[in-house]
Amino acid sequence: MEYGRVIHRLAGVLSLAFLAALAGCGHREADSPVSQDVDPKSIAEYDVARDLWLQRHQPRQALDHALNAVQMDDENAEAAHMVALIYLDFCRMSPSECQLDQAARYARQALDVFPKYREARNTLGVILIHQRKYDEAISTLLPLSQDILYQTPENAWGNLGWAYLESGKVERAIDALQRAVAAQPAFCVGHYRLGQAFEKKGDPQEALIAYGRALNADQRCQGLQEAWGARGKLLMKLGRADDGRADLDECVRLDQSTETGRQCRAGLGKQP
After folding, report:
1. 3-state secondary structure string, 195-243?
2. Which residues contact 165 (CB under 8 A, 6 or more apart)?
3. pLDDT in tens, 217-259
4. In 51-203, which residue ranges form alpha helices assigned H by DSSP?
5. DSSP three-state, residue 28
6. Are 87 and 79 spatial neighbours (Cβ–Cβ below 8 Å)?
7. Alpha carbon of 166 to those of 13, 161, 190: distances in Å?
8. Taking a C-beta distance cutoff of 8 angstroms, is the pair 52, 65 a contact?
9. What pLDDT, in 10s, does the model give residues 187-209?
10. What secondary structure letter does DSSP report for 96?
11. What angle do CA 112, 114, 86 make, to 5 degrees?
12. pLDDT tens per residue, the chain (272 residues)?
Protein backbone atom coordinates (compact mmCIF):
# COMPACT_ATOMS: atom_id res chain seq x y z
CA MET A 1 0.00 0.00 0.00
CA GLU A 2 1.30 3.48 -0.86
CA TYR A 3 1.97 5.83 2.03
CA GLY A 4 -0.45 8.35 0.52
CA ARG A 5 -3.32 5.87 0.92
CA VAL A 6 -2.32 5.28 4.51
CA ILE A 7 -2.59 9.02 5.15
CA HIS A 8 -6.08 9.13 3.64
CA ARG A 9 -7.22 6.25 5.84
CA LEU A 10 -5.64 7.45 9.08
CA ALA A 11 -5.89 11.22 8.70
CA GLY A 12 -8.49 11.43 11.45
CA VAL A 13 -6.27 9.89 14.10
CA LEU A 14 -2.69 10.70 13.16
CA SER A 15 -1.11 13.67 14.85
CA LEU A 16 0.04 16.64 12.78
CA ALA A 17 3.62 15.86 13.66
CA PHE A 18 3.44 12.36 12.28
CA LEU A 19 1.48 13.45 9.20
CA ALA A 20 4.20 15.93 8.43
CA ALA A 21 6.83 13.23 8.48
CA LEU A 22 4.78 10.57 6.75
CA ALA A 23 3.32 12.73 3.99
CA GLY A 24 4.94 11.96 0.70
CA CYS A 25 7.12 9.14 1.97
CA GLY A 26 7.34 5.96 -0.01
CA HIS A 27 7.46 7.52 -3.47
CA ARG A 28 9.84 5.71 -5.80
CA GLU A 29 12.06 8.46 -7.14
CA ALA A 30 14.26 8.18 -10.22
CA ASP A 31 17.26 8.11 -7.91
CA SER A 32 15.78 5.53 -5.56
CA PRO A 33 17.91 4.47 -2.57
CA VAL A 34 17.36 0.80 -3.41
CA SER A 35 20.60 -0.74 -4.56
CA GLN A 36 21.31 -4.09 -6.13
CA ASP A 37 24.15 -4.36 -3.63
CA VAL A 38 21.81 -4.48 -0.61
CA ASP A 39 21.63 -7.90 1.01
CA PRO A 40 18.42 -9.65 -0.19
CA LYS A 41 17.80 -10.87 3.37
CA SER A 42 17.85 -7.26 4.55
CA ILE A 43 15.35 -6.30 1.85
CA ALA A 44 13.10 -9.18 2.89
CA GLU A 45 13.19 -8.02 6.53
CA TYR A 46 12.35 -4.50 5.39
CA ASP A 47 9.33 -5.82 3.46
CA VAL A 48 8.12 -7.68 6.55
CA ALA A 49 8.53 -4.54 8.65
CA ARG A 50 6.58 -2.44 6.16
CA ASP A 51 3.72 -4.95 6.14
CA LEU A 52 3.62 -5.18 9.94
CA TRP A 53 3.60 -1.42 10.34
CA LEU A 54 1.33 -0.20 7.55
CA GLN A 55 -0.97 -3.18 7.01
CA ARG A 56 -1.15 -4.91 10.39
CA HIS A 57 -0.59 -1.81 12.57
CA GLN A 58 1.99 -3.55 14.75
CA PRO A 59 4.74 -0.94 15.15
CA ARG A 60 6.71 -2.78 17.84
CA GLN A 61 7.07 -5.91 15.77
CA ALA A 62 7.74 -3.75 12.70
CA LEU A 63 10.54 -1.93 14.50
CA ASP A 64 12.18 -5.23 15.41
CA HIS A 65 12.24 -6.35 11.77
CA ALA A 66 13.33 -2.93 10.49
CA LEU A 67 16.23 -2.91 12.94
CA ASN A 68 17.13 -6.42 11.83
CA ALA A 69 17.16 -5.19 8.24
CA VAL A 70 19.60 -2.43 9.14
CA GLN A 71 21.75 -4.81 11.17
CA MET A 72 21.92 -7.24 8.26
CA ASP A 73 23.01 -4.47 5.91
CA ASP A 74 23.76 -0.96 7.13
CA GLU A 75 23.63 0.20 3.50
CA ASN A 76 19.87 -0.40 3.39
CA ALA A 77 18.82 3.25 3.41
CA GLU A 78 15.10 2.51 3.12
CA ALA A 79 15.21 0.31 6.20
CA ALA A 80 17.07 2.99 8.18
CA HIS A 81 14.47 5.55 7.11
CA MET A 82 11.64 3.25 8.16
CA VAL A 83 13.24 2.84 11.59
CA ALA A 84 13.24 6.64 11.94
CA LEU A 85 9.57 6.83 10.95
CA ILE A 86 8.54 4.08 13.36
CA TYR A 87 10.31 5.86 16.20
CA LEU A 88 8.29 8.94 15.27
CA ASP A 89 5.17 6.78 15.38
CA PHE A 90 6.00 5.88 18.98
CA CYS A 91 6.20 9.61 19.74
CA ARG A 92 2.69 9.96 18.37
CA MET A 93 1.37 7.11 20.51
CA SER A 94 3.02 7.95 23.82
CA PRO A 95 5.34 10.77 24.93
CA SER A 96 6.98 8.38 27.39
CA GLU A 97 8.04 6.13 24.51
CA CYS A 98 9.23 8.94 22.26
CA GLN A 99 12.89 8.54 21.25
CA LEU A 100 13.67 11.46 18.97
CA ASP A 101 17.42 10.92 19.28
CA GLN A 102 17.04 7.43 17.87
CA ALA A 103 14.75 8.70 15.11
CA ALA A 104 17.34 11.32 14.17
CA ARG A 105 20.15 8.77 14.25
CA TYR A 106 18.50 6.51 11.69
CA ALA A 107 17.30 9.35 9.47
CA ARG A 108 20.90 10.59 9.34
CA GLN A 109 22.12 7.06 8.62
CA ALA A 110 19.76 6.85 5.64
CA LEU A 111 21.15 10.14 4.34
CA ASP A 112 24.74 9.08 4.96
CA VAL A 113 24.13 6.03 2.78
CA PHE A 114 22.16 7.93 0.16
CA PRO A 115 22.60 11.74 0.36
CA LYS A 116 19.90 12.32 -2.30
CA TYR A 117 17.25 10.47 -0.29
CA ARG A 118 14.74 13.30 -0.28
CA GLU A 119 12.11 11.68 1.93
CA ALA A 120 14.70 10.92 4.59
CA ARG A 121 15.75 14.57 4.49
CA ASN A 122 12.14 15.63 4.97
CA THR A 123 11.81 13.24 7.91
CA LEU A 124 15.02 14.52 9.50
CA GLY A 125 13.71 18.07 9.20
CA VAL A 126 10.54 17.12 11.08
CA ILE A 127 12.54 15.37 13.81
CA LEU A 128 14.75 18.44 14.24
CA ILE A 129 11.66 20.62 14.65
CA HIS A 130 10.43 18.34 17.41
CA GLN A 131 13.86 18.56 19.00
CA ARG A 132 13.50 22.36 18.83
CA LYS A 133 16.62 22.58 16.70
CA TYR A 134 14.96 25.10 14.42
CA ASP A 135 18.02 26.55 12.70
CA GLU A 136 19.28 23.07 11.82
CA ALA A 137 15.80 22.10 10.64
CA ILE A 138 15.69 25.15 8.37
CA SER A 139 19.12 24.41 6.91
CA THR A 140 18.03 20.80 6.32
CA LEU A 141 14.71 21.64 4.67
CA LEU A 142 15.61 24.74 2.67
CA PRO A 143 17.60 22.84 -0.02
CA LEU A 144 14.74 20.35 -0.30
CA SER A 145 12.21 23.13 -0.89
CA GLN A 146 14.37 24.35 -3.79
CA ASP A 147 14.88 20.89 -5.29
CA ILE A 148 12.82 20.79 -8.49
CA LEU A 149 13.08 16.98 -8.59
CA TYR A 150 11.31 16.50 -5.24
CA GLN A 151 7.95 14.92 -6.05
CA THR A 152 6.06 16.45 -3.10
CA PRO A 153 7.36 20.03 -2.76
CA GLU A 154 4.41 20.94 -0.53
CA ASN A 155 5.95 18.81 2.23
CA ALA A 156 9.30 20.58 2.06
CA TRP A 157 7.71 24.05 1.96
CA GLY A 158 5.19 23.08 4.64
CA ASN A 159 7.78 21.77 7.06
CA LEU A 160 10.11 24.68 6.32
CA GLY A 161 7.24 27.03 7.11
CA TRP A 162 6.60 25.12 10.33
CA ALA A 163 10.26 25.51 11.32
CA TYR A 164 10.14 29.24 10.59
CA LEU A 165 6.92 29.53 12.59
CA GLU A 166 8.32 27.74 15.62
CA SER A 167 11.45 29.90 15.50
CA GLY A 168 9.36 33.09 15.51
CA LYS A 169 10.04 34.08 11.87
CA VAL A 170 6.38 34.66 11.05
CA GLU A 171 6.70 36.45 7.70
CA ARG A 172 9.05 33.76 6.36
CA ALA A 173 6.65 31.12 7.67
CA ILE A 174 3.75 32.70 5.81
CA ASP A 175 5.73 32.86 2.58
CA ALA A 176 6.83 29.21 2.82
CA LEU A 177 3.36 27.97 3.78
CA GLN A 178 1.70 29.90 0.98
CA ARG A 179 4.11 28.19 -1.40
CA ALA A 180 3.17 24.84 0.14
CA VAL A 181 -0.57 25.24 -0.41
CA ALA A 182 0.00 26.70 -3.86
CA ALA A 183 1.92 23.55 -4.78
CA GLN A 184 -0.85 21.36 -3.33
CA PRO A 185 -4.19 23.13 -2.63
CA ALA A 186 -5.50 20.03 -0.80
CA PHE A 187 -2.62 20.16 1.72
CA CYS A 188 -4.70 20.34 4.91
CA VAL A 189 -1.79 20.63 7.34
CA GLY A 190 -0.24 23.43 5.26
CA HIS A 191 -3.45 25.47 5.44
CA TYR A 192 -3.66 24.82 9.19
CA ARG A 193 -0.14 26.03 9.85
CA LEU A 194 -0.78 29.05 7.63
CA GLY A 195 -3.72 29.84 9.89
CA GLN A 196 -1.43 29.61 12.90
CA ALA A 197 1.04 31.96 11.22
CA PHE A 198 -1.62 34.56 10.42
CA GLU A 199 -2.93 34.32 13.97
CA LYS A 200 0.58 34.94 15.32
CA LYS A 201 0.89 37.88 12.96
CA GLY A 202 -2.29 39.38 14.44
CA ASP A 203 -4.49 38.87 11.37
CA PRO A 204 -7.47 36.86 12.66
CA GLN A 205 -9.54 37.16 9.49
CA GLU A 206 -6.85 35.63 7.30
CA ALA A 207 -6.32 33.01 9.99
CA LEU A 208 -10.01 32.06 9.85
CA ILE A 209 -9.83 31.75 6.07
CA ALA A 210 -6.80 29.48 6.33
CA TYR A 211 -8.37 27.33 9.04
CA GLY A 212 -11.50 27.02 6.90
CA ARG A 213 -9.42 25.81 3.98
CA ALA A 214 -7.61 23.40 6.29
CA LEU A 215 -10.96 21.75 6.99
CA ASN A 216 -12.48 21.92 3.52
CA ALA A 217 -9.63 21.60 1.02
CA ASP A 218 -10.24 17.86 0.77
CA GLN A 219 -12.63 15.34 2.30
CA ARG A 220 -9.89 13.88 4.50
CA CYS A 221 -9.29 17.33 5.98
CA GLN A 222 -12.46 16.96 8.05
CA GLY A 223 -10.47 14.71 10.38
CA LEU A 224 -7.86 17.36 11.16
CA GLN A 225 -8.70 17.80 14.83
CA GLU A 226 -6.16 20.55 15.44
CA ALA A 227 -7.79 22.78 12.82
CA TRP A 228 -11.22 22.41 14.43
CA GLY A 229 -9.72 23.31 17.79
CA ALA A 230 -7.72 26.28 16.50
CA ARG A 231 -10.64 27.78 14.60
CA GLY A 232 -13.01 27.17 17.50
CA LYS A 233 -10.75 28.96 19.97
CA LEU A 234 -10.23 31.87 17.59
CA LEU A 235 -13.96 32.22 16.97
CA MET A 236 -14.55 32.31 20.73
CA LYS A 237 -11.95 35.07 21.09
CA LEU A 238 -13.68 37.05 18.36
CA GLY A 239 -17.01 36.85 20.20
CA ARG A 240 -18.59 34.31 17.85
CA ALA A 241 -19.44 31.94 20.68
CA ASP A 242 -22.00 29.73 18.90
CA ASP A 243 -19.72 29.10 15.93
CA GLY A 244 -16.75 28.57 18.24
CA ARG A 245 -18.58 26.04 20.39
CA ALA A 246 -19.68 24.11 17.30
CA ASP A 247 -16.05 23.77 16.19
CA LEU A 248 -14.86 22.79 19.66
CA ASP A 249 -17.67 20.21 19.91
CA GLU A 250 -16.50 18.68 16.64
CA CYS A 251 -12.92 18.68 17.91
CA VAL A 252 -13.98 16.74 21.02
CA ARG A 253 -16.15 14.38 18.98
CA LEU A 254 -13.18 13.40 16.82
CA ASP A 255 -11.13 12.23 19.82
CA GLN A 256 -11.37 13.55 23.35
CA SER A 257 -8.44 11.47 24.56
CA THR A 258 -5.78 13.47 22.67
CA GLU A 259 -4.11 16.60 24.02
CA THR A 260 -6.00 18.63 21.42
CA GLY A 261 -9.26 16.97 22.45
CA ARG A 262 -8.63 17.79 26.10
CA GLN A 263 -7.89 21.41 25.21
CA CYS A 264 -11.13 21.61 23.25
CA ARG A 265 -13.06 20.23 26.22
CA ALA A 266 -11.46 22.86 28.42
CA GLY A 267 -12.47 25.53 25.92
CA LEU A 268 -16.05 24.36 26.27
CA GLY A 269 -15.80 24.59 30.05
CA LYS A 270 -15.99 20.82 30.50
CA GLN A 271 -14.01 18.80 32.99
CA PRO A 272 -11.11 16.70 31.60
Report:
1. HHHHHHHCCHHHHHHHHHHHHHCCHHHHHCHHHHHHHHHHHHHCCCHHH
2. 173, 177, 193, 196, 197, 200
3. 988 899 999 999 999 999 999 999 999 999 999 999 999 988 8
4. 59-72, 77-93, 100-113, 118-130, 134-145, 153-166, 170-183, 188-201
5. coil
6. no
7. 23, 9, 14
8. yes
9. 999 999 999 999 999 999 999 99
10. G
11. 75
12. 333 333 332 332 334 545 444 544 444 444 556 666 889 999 999 999 999 998 998 999 999 999 999 999 999 999 999 999 999 988 877 788 889 999 999 999 999 999 999 999 999 999 999 999 999 999 999 999 999 999 999 999 999 999 999 999 999 999 999 999 999 999 999 999 999 999 999 999 999 999 999 999 988 899 999 999 999 999 999 999 999 999 999 999 999 988 899 999 999 987 55
Host H or E run for residue 6: helix 3-10
The Cβ of residue 159 has, within 10 Å, a number of other Cβ atoms equal to 32
- Alpha carbons 142 and 150: distance in angstroms, whole number: 12
Of 31, 187, 5, the C-alpha closest to 120 is 31
Distance, in Å, from the CA atom of 215 to the CA atom of 231, rounded to the nearest integer, reads 10
Q: What is the DSSP secondary structure assignment for residue 39, as one 8-state letter? A: -
